Amino acid sequence: MTMISPLILTEAGWADYQLIDSGAGRKLERYGSMLVERPEPQALWAPTLPAERWTKAQAIFKNASEREEDEGGEWDFQIKNPPETWAMTVENATMVARFMAFRHMGIFPEQRPHWMWVKDRIAGRPLKILNLFAYTGAASMIAAASGATVTHVDASKKAIQWAKDNQAASGLNDKPIRWIIEDARKFVAREIRRGNKYDGILLDPPRYGRGTDGEVWKFETDTAPLLKDCAALLSDDASFMILTAYALRFSSVALAQMMEDVAPKRGSIDHGELWLGDESGNRPLPTSLFARWSA
């Protein structure tokens, strides 16, 4: 199997998203109509823009602790009556954004290069797609709108409901999306027993998490076995399998070599990093690692 040198996939932003600046452990972004400032441990450099630009943030997230792995905290709003939700358009989907207590807003813009890549591979074909750790479902929406039949799996009932809200906002209620609230490992194991197959699989596992029955997930020990089981679900004509990791102490080479252990021998594997390009185009922000097999 051919494994190419690392790729850098940079998302420069679109009409409803822009990384404005980053530095000093923070980032300034525009999510649709809202300008927000959040923690960003990767931003070890100094900000590029003057402080005056940063003071325009309408919402500022403050950590509950100094630990990098602790995403809890609260929002400090600089405007009266901040919106509970607002709409963001990405590709052929509409996502409902909201301020969460763990600093996220329901969409990870750095993933857009993957969403576009998957959209191009579907190209109107009725592929069967499995989206694991699917959260609020941007990938599920875009795949379904592009012609795929999607199985969306997440252990969080709240995340599934949010994804369903995104389906309604996107006008995709007539599209074939199956919603599964379950631990990803249990679901995949059951699909293997049933003999079900998929033409494309996306995995975006956390560093640490818990399943529906309190099952503990650790990226370091649990990803490789799950990836092996996912490979067993690939159809004979499968098109792709994508693994994304936000545990940046690893290397994309490590992800690619895990993928090489289990992926079909036809096709190729690429790997690398997902970056966000800032407003200036001069100070990109690294966000995550990926490996993907494609036929």
Count of the domains: 2
Percent of residues in helical segments?
10-25%
| Largest sheet data | 9 strands, mixed
Number of strands: 18
- Tell me, rounded to a whole number, the average pLDDT: 93
Helix and strand succession? EEEEEHEEEEHEHEHEHEEEHEHEE
What best-fitting shape do the alpha-carbon axes yield? globular
**Can you tell me the CATH superfamily of the largest domain?**
Vaccinia Virus protein VP39
CATH architecture of the largest domain: 3-Layer(aba) Sandwich
CATH topology of the largest domain: Rossmann fold
- Number of helical elements: 7
What report would you give on this structure?
This protein has helices spanning 51-54, 112-122, 138-145, 157-169, 184-194, 219-232, 252-262; strands at residues 2-3, 7-11, 17-23, 26-31, 34-39, 59-63, 73-77, 86-90, 93-97, 128-132, 149-154, 177-181, 200-203, 208-210, 216-218, 240-245, 268-276, 285-294. By secondary structure, it is α/β, with parallel strands linked by helices. The strands form four sheets. Strands 1, 2, 10, 11, 12, 13, 16, 17 and 18 form a nine-stranded mixed beta sheet that branches. Helix 2 packs parallel to helix 3, helix 5 runs parallel beside helix 6 (219-232) and helix 6 runs parallel beside helix 7 (252-262). The longest helix is centred in the last third of the chain and has 14 residues, at 219-232. The mean pLDDT is 93.
Q: Topology of this structure?
A:
Blueprint (H helix, E strand, L loop, with lengths): L1 E2 L3 E5 L5 E7 L2 E6 L2 E6 L11 H4 L4 E5 L9 E5 L8 E5 L2 E5 L14 H11 L5 E5 L5 H8 L3 E6 L2 H13 L7 E5 L2 H11 L5 E4 L4 E3 L5 E3 H14 L7 E6 L6 H11 L5 E9 L8 E10 L1
Helix pairs in contact: 2-3, 5-6, 6-7
